[in-house]
Amino acid sequence: MDFKHVKKNEEKSVLEKKEKVDQDFWRQKYHLQGIVGLINDPNGFSQFKGKYHLFYQWNPLKTDHTAKYWGHSVSDDLLHWERKSTALRPDTWYSKNGAYSGSGIVINEKLYLFYTGNVKDEEGNRSSYQCFAISEDGENFERLEPSIVNQPDGYTRHIRDPKIWEKDGKYYAVIGIQSEKLEGKAVLYSSENVKDWKYLGEIAGGNKEPLGDFGYMWECPDYFQLKDEKTGKVVDILAACPQGLEPQGDLYNNKYQSGYFFGKLDYEKPDFEITSEFTELDRGHDFYAPQTMEDDKGRRIIVGWMGVPEEEDYPTVKNEWLHCLTLPRELKVIDGVLYQLPIDEMKSIRGEKTEFNGTVNGETEAGKGTVYEMIAEFSDFSDDFGLKLRTGENSETVIKFDYKEKKLILDRSRGEQPDKKPRKVYLGDIEKLDLRIFVDNSSVEVFVNGGKEVFSSRIFPQKNADGIKVFSEGNVNIKIEKWEWQD
Ligand code: FRU
Fold first, then answer.
1. Which DSSP letter does residue 242 get?
2. pLDDT in tens, 44-72
3. How far apart, in whole angstroms, are the C-alpha atoms of residue 334 and residue 23?
4. Burial bucket for residue 233 (CB in 10 Å: 0-12, 13-18, 19+)
5. Is residue 160 within 6 Å of ligand 1 at its C-beta?
6. What integer pLDDT is reported at residue 96 of this predicted model?
7. Cβ-count burial of 457 within 10 angstroms (0-12 exposed, 13-18 middle, 19+ buried)?
8. Helix (H) or strand (E) holding 132
9. Which of 387, 390, 393, 439 has the alpha carbon at shortest distance from 408?
10. pLDDT value, residue 150
11. Which residue's CA is minimally distant from atom 9 of ligand 1?
């Protein structure tokens, strides 16, 4: 098979589309986005020779999911990303219909990518190959023939997204898979040498204790440990993206879900003994397929795709681009609760500061801005209150605390985005609410009460929609600090 056209098509498409993309006022200022085309899952998130490496699923040809390359960017601070040459293309027999998602690991001063090669035959039958690519310089990757060919007995060919880690000199990978009964699962493999892989077994999934039906496929699993900062106890976390969960009230309102379980991984059995409910990582409209890595500062950092599969009708499509990644967030467990915090580096892009302080009853202006960080603290309330951001002609993103329901609500119904339904999370009895909000040209990320909850949503306001308002049904004390984005 001759694959020379694959690189040529990519280069041609970038040249043709870049100007149009660059003119779009919805292009993000401080989020990782593709140069043209569609991006989805973060991949290969790692640190190599002092730099952060973040790869992502990329279709350079169109704003749909028909072709998958690995775009590649590097950074010193997880905030300013430099685009590198494309790391993987669908240009081998074992990845010809997509170099699908996977992870990265550094072994003996080489960067290894472990990913899924997707192949479809003429009848549309799928094969999945788990494959390595290796780099000495962090930019050029040598592709190896597949390490795992297809699936273990009892499963379909939906097996993908290996997340690799090392423990006591051995390598392990958790992989998303579908059983022949069409249940989503996560399976564990191990290897002594990164070349030969052994199937250990299923560690979690639908209709495996304690879960009942839990979706027809689990994508992008991740496994890691965190030390509880209060109790000192080490906790195990299994994250996964189940497809096929039905909405339940405020839960599971996106097309597909992304969440985690606490538990304990038993490598021998093998089994991930689940000890918690499945908890969604994000309460917003756009979050899927996150990936974590531990950096040299000992931080466990998570990045997600700020998008969801089969949501391709966003208005940037007419300008030849679609989707971006979320901000990197630090994960912490404090007294048994998982928190997600903006990384410290975020403070480095704080520019001019403005403040708003006062008791509000009704609605009032509280500043202006399109791209900024805001910290808003609310206290002494006994009724509904909130913020309106990016207000203007047919534009408004509302973050409201519903006092009776004890819920925080993100309403992005005014703007050019599809899916106008609000997203909600139950906060319970609270006396104070603090929000740390990052607004970019077409997104909002809201960290609630020290990162106990996060909402990530794309928004598509009019270009000049720069209003900031506060509102309340009764009295509320509000303290706002806001920093213009400054590079
Ligand atoms: C998740 C996913 C992965 C797959 C990739 C293909 O969004 O469907 O399971 O590897 O995207 O782009």
1. E
2. 999 999 999 999 999 999 999 999 999 99
3. 44
4. exposed
5. yes
6. 97
7. buried
8. strand 126-135
9. 387
10. 85
11. 219
